[in-house]
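Tutorial, part two.
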Amino acid sequence: MKEIVIKRSTGKFIRMFTLALLLAVLGGVGYAVNTSSYKEICIIACVIFTIIAIYFLIRFLKPKSLLVLSEKGFTDNSSAGGIGFVPWEYVKNISETTVMYQNFISVELKDTSLGCQVINISLDYADTNFYDALNMMQSFFESNKNA
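Running the prediction step on this input gives:
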């Protein structure tokens, strides 16, 4: 099998950046206009959403693929804490997990040598359907787990 790269959806990413920027601006405006005790809340919101907007901007300007599948293993860059490359021989099972209406690809590892027992991969910002990505990952795992 060839390498499969699952990229970020530019449209979803731009919407999230715009929302974070809008909330940061609203927090700043709320701070400037408000004369009551809500000023602290407004400045905290402004700082938090500015940091989030900067994170989205950096991710947009320096894009990384969310998930890369190859014969040797997979690379997880789906979150700020993405684990990176994981060889197939470390993987025990791949399944779907749903937490509060959000789907994750759950990768159960054979041991904790990578620092965790389960890796949950979110594909909310992916340009690929979640179930297509799950099926591709399971196919790669099944065909390469004993290689």
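The longest helix spans residues 10-33. In part three we will examine how such features are distributed along the chain.
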